[in-house]
Amino acid sequence: MQFSGKSVVLTGSGSGIGRELAADVDIAAARETVGLCASCPGDARAVQCDVSDDAAQEALFAEHVRRHGGVDIAILNAGIYERGDFVESEGPGWQATLKVNLLGALVGARLAARAMTSFGKPGVILFMASAGGLFPMPIAPVYAASKAALVHLTRSAAPTLARRGIRLAAVCPQPVDTPMVQTMMNAGFELPETGASLLTAARVSEATMLLLEDEAASGKLLMVHVNGKFYTWKPPGFRKSLVPVERAAAASGAGAPGAAAERAALAAWARDSIPSQGRKLQVHRLSTDFRVATRIVAERVPAASELPPGHVLVRRAFAAINASDINYTAGRYFGSTADAEKRLPFDAGFEAVGVVAALGPDVKGLAVGDAVAQMAYGAFSEWGVVPVRHALPVPSPAPEVVALLTSGLTASIGLEEAGRLRRGDTVLVTAAAGGTGQFAVQLAAQAGCMVVATCGSAAKAALLKRLGAARVINHREEVVKDVLKREFPKGMDVVWEAVGGEMLATGVHALARGGRLVVIGAVSQYAAGWAPGALPPGTPELLLWRSATLTGFFLLHYTHLYRKHLQRLVAAWRSGRLHVALDPTPFRGLEAVAEAEDLLLSGGSVGKIVVQLSAEAPPRGDSSFSKL
User: Fold this and answer.
1) pTM value?
2) Superfamily of domain 8-240
3) pLDDT tens digit sequence for 288-310
4) Do domains 8-240 and 256-402+609-624 have the same CATH topology?
5) Name one GO molecular function term (predicted).
């Protein structure tokens, strides 16, 4: 960055690092600084401002903009430390530390960003944080907390500001030889982490200038060590930051009694009702008519002593309805009709949640009473013998959890792997109020994308607006392709397509340059036999000229990603960040599965359709569920 002709707002410049910075910035512009030379030829001014006073900062920035026509650089350096012991000290000293170090810097950053944005000029905002914001600082915990907040604010806000042409970064020095630090040391504060060594303000100023000059420093955290060296601080990766907590350790912590009681209740629900015989749905004839294809049959439920090694007995609580159920009953997932005929009869259903009722030999990692999910054929059954490797631990056997399986995983993995979703994308989601579409809408919106969603009723449109869709198109009231052409002339970066037929053609023609269309299904064609369809004329040429892609996504090809994405989805649901919309129609028992399939194919469902398989639902403890 060239400093000549730039305007700079620098807080905390009365002494220490701030004074050194003021000198460096003006030296870089061939100017002497205020405080060093009263006859500065440049337009440099010293202004008294309490950064903990929002109005005072607003006046400061307004006057600076009036005089200089904007703000090019803001270095937010003002800072104080807390006085006294963290527990025993009296008075508001610690609050002042937060007001100056954190709130003052935050207000200054917002004012600087607004000034830069209003004039449409790129700019740089630098926080003077601290190594105490990267590592524990027992001698001044409130000061450390304020600086740690600046560190995380830098990491979190930098991407948003970068899209506006503003670079946000932070300098994180170890203790510096400034009046503030000297006062701390004179008051008896020790610096064991640095061996009583101190940095010079000049060295910190050099680091700051380095960040200012680095055009690629958005979000960068530059640590200045007391040895004088500079280090880019990078936080550990997500996986390295997480250490699994073993069940035994967790049981001794807070909340363990409630969790233990809930688990005991689930164990009793599953274990105390094991019958000698259960029921399941089997496919006896290949057909897209679920009633014609299936019937309920009895099956023997093995005793615990009869379970094979590495298997568990699961009492199933809820199963989900999927559009692909009738593809399965029609034999489309077996390579050929002849191969499917040879396998008759075979068990139906793709996914369910339940509770472990008994353990076979050599089972590790699961216990009776644990809630598990299963994504394997045969889910439409009251009991199941499941290999441990296929039993996915979940926090509860809730209907919301079963909705997160095929539907949630398809959206989560598909958008990431096939859609290559990027912040700022415009995303079209078809059949958006269904089991999978609802998650695609939310995940795309939460990733910083503009979501356009299609549906077929006012109730579905209302749901999609609540889930974060920026534009909802009811295809029964508006022509989708006309809306897209009129309101989104630049096209769609991602098209998430589940309908097929005419909607697929609309999606292809709506692709932007570099757009990605992901086909996850063709629900409009399933009941009629899903005959091979032709792509819209000119599709290869359109993809070529727009550098676009047309990609299929089949969830079963991504089994290695199930656990990671399911953990992410469940965590988002339990924290309230992800809403699970369930169709309100109650379906209970295997006898209701065919009726549930009919509702799905009618297009009248809103959200995921779930069937309660057990006669009575499992106990639902408050500790396992987010309140949605």
Assistant:
1) 0.58
2) NAD(P)-binding Rossmann-like Domain (3.40.50.720)
3) 999 999 999 999 999 999 999 99
4) no
5) oxidoreductase activity
